[in-house]
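Q: I'm writing up a methods section and want to include an example of the input and output format. Could you take the sequence below and give the corresponding predicted structure tokens, formatted cleanly so I can copy it straight into the document?
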Amino acid sequence: MRKIFLLFALLLVLTPLAFSAGQAESKELTVYTPASKEIVNLVIPEFEKKYNVTVNTVEAGTGQLFNRIKAEAANPQADIMFTGGIDSGGAFRAYLDDYVSKEDPNLIMSAKEHPWYNAVFLHPMGIIYNKNLVKEGEVKGWKDLTDPKWKGKVLMPDPRKSGSAFGELIIFLHVFGREGPAWDFVKALHKNLVIVSSSSHTYKFVASGEYPFGFTHERNAYKYAAAGKPVGFIYPVEGTAVRPDGIYLVKGGPNPKLAKQFIDFVLSKEVMEQLRDLGFRVNRKDVAPPPGYPPISSIKQGPYDPVWAAKNREMILKKWTEIEESE
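A: Here is the clean output for your methods example:
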């Protein structure tokens, strides 16, 4: 009887330890990322060194990686999706876990209203223009580009193929109202558009002087201006949206504790300052934007709902196609 009691006592002591060991997370993190090499090479080695862990990265396009996360939902392989526009993320909301970073009080854009992503980079959208082709103040907003004199002079990618262009279309719908008035604006604007095959063409062709206008986010304009190109950037008077790139916690990922540490690490002041020095406007109150960028508070912003956009994507692109085919 005494032996049975001792064995039972031993089991009581060892069982929690065995359970704890079985539940211990791996010291490996799997990160899916569409981020540029300069971002990956900055963030990943520093995290590995700080926490003495290994990070396995899978690099591909945003849509490809989100679709992979969806395909793996029954047996998730990734812990983190590191960057990627919230327009794309909204379509995969069901495969993402909620997490509000411990750094949230220090962030410009809080995750409390959208805990399925924490914003990393902030990308105000607007109009890049060539100063040799456009007079200062001649265009102040979106509506000015519906003037017939700009026919064939405004570059925009196809929103059916480009995530940034789809985001631009959503901005129009939010700024001018989602129903009739907004689509009237899109119809008028479309008459002046030149649809390009790549988002990069919008700023490259404007910087080279081939076209006077293009739609893009501010970083592309400031990067070319810093390189000596005659370009400026217009924050439209009607308002725009600060479209973030987010960091996402994959639902059911193998290492959620380490994944949350990674999110907090990316959003820390130390890392965000380094990302700012690469020329990004980052989502942190105590990190100034890159030199020459206006403060975020000076930019007129309208509402922006990526989940609504994702749910209504098919309808929105159908209307765009109808406009395209009617001309």
